[in-house]
Amino acid sequence: MNTPLRIGLIGAGANTRDKHIPGFRALRDVELVAVTNRTRTSAERVAKEFGIARVADDWREIVAAPDIDAVCIGTWPYLHAEVTIAALRAGKHVLTEARMAATADEAEAMEAALIEARKTCPGIVAQVVPSPMTLSWDAIVRDLLVEGVLGRLHAVEIAHLHGAYADPATPIAWRQRKVLNGVNTLSLGIYYEAVQRWLGEDATVLKAESGIVTPERIDAETGEHVAVDVPDWVKVNGVFLGGAVLRAEFSAVETKRPRNEIVLHGERRGVRLDLAAGKLWLLAGGQAERALEIAPEKHGAWCVEADFVESIRTGAPVRLTDFATGVRYMRFTEAAWKAWQQ
């Protein structure tokens, strides 16, 4: 294209600075026109670091700007729906950070806004940043399933256990505050999305347990004690449409060795993706695990910004992650939240 695609950044947290800005800057005919953040000072710092010409005091300035074609939303989930809906109504393409929204209702409102926007702007693109940790392995695991290597799948295990919040003196994180993070609990949604990608089907929540170990923490910005209202640990049991059971456990208050893996159990074999070690293991009837040797070209990679721009320029459908998929994982996430509350 001879005409540059002009992008405004709404929120410039770590993932925006580490991934989205470099990703967009690596593409031809893409300009980062403006940035806004929680404070003008932080926005000015980002603008100076990355050579962005304009700093906005409010995200609405970027949504309304006639010289901006698309927005990249890097805020916390509580703003995703409001900003996305406003941007779509203004005829702007949207790339929004994961998790899609604070609640399933908000995610559904975002999808409805996209459907409405396409009535007048058929080519408008809306994409959610995909769950990233399995991108390198997604195609490989899907091939194992499609080729029948595992046989009929009967169980899925997810475990993400670490100690980020184990020390009660650790300041509260935004992910521990429902007002900022919504019903998104630890890494439940992001891991469920990855498995959903492999299986192509949804799970029903049957039971969930959770707990808050440290009910109050210090807010590092204000020095005040703030209530923690998002669980420190959660266990979820469910069943996928095809019959495979789901056993998932997440904790940020572990004092033992961290565990970060997804295991698929089939009637013939199983497979264990060790995300901490970056290895894929084949399991067979109690025998020793065997590491699968994977050719480098088989591995996927992060290409979120390139995919977003390609969809805008060529009309290619959004693969990772479209709004319909985001709504599905938000429904699951909220169902788990309601189950542990009950």
Topology summary:
Layout: E1 5-10, H1 14-25, E2 30-36, H2 40-50, E3 54-55, H3 59-64, E4 70-73, H4 80-89, E5 93-96, H5 104-120, E6 126-128, H6 138-146, E7 153-161, H7 178-181, H8 188-199, E8 203-211, E9 216-218, E10 225-227, E11 233-240, E12 245-251, E13 259-266, E14 270-274, E15 279-283, E16 290-291, H9 304-314, H10 323-341
Parallel strand pairs: 1-2, 1-4, 2-3, 4-5, 5-6, 7-12
Antiparallel strand pairs: 7-13, 8-11, 9-10, 11-12, 13-14, 14-15, 15-16
Helix pairs in contact: 4-5, 5-10, 6-8, 8-10
Concise overview:
The protein is built from 10 helices and 16 strands. It is an alpha/beta fold.
The total domain count is: 2
Count of helical stretches: 10
Question: What is the N-to-C order of secondary-structure elements (H for helix, E for strand)?
Answer: EHEHEHEHEHEHEHHEEEEEEEEEHH
Shape annotation: globular
Q: What is the highest CATH level, the class of the largest domain?
A: Alpha Beta
Strand order of the largest sheet: 8-11-12-7-13-14-15-16
